[in-house]
Amino acid sequence: MTENIDPFGNDMAQLKALMQVMDEITALRVPLVDTADVVTNRNIRNLEKWALEYVMTDGDLVHDLKSAVIEIKYLASIIKDLRGRLRENETEIRRLENQLHRAN
Fold this sequence. Notes:
Helix content: over 70%
Order of helices and strands: HHH
Distance between the termini: 41 Å
Radius of gyration: 24 Å
Number of strands: 0
Shape: elongated
Number of helices: 3
């Protein structure tokens, strides 16, 4: 005798949330790779390469180029951190909204 057993039990809400995430990824609404990071890293590598080509030249241009690379790396790390915090806040907002809807 076969019984119709629900393998997910009380986890239907989690299953629906997982399905929503999968739908967003397959609909390309969620970038798999952050293109801004790729472009920034490529530009940093190019600037570092140019600075290395003129390593024997102790001019203002080389110094400014090296300073710009350091500043760009610093600003890129701040942006990455802020994006992470934004994602965390958005997740927390969705969690609180779901909790509010369940309470009503």
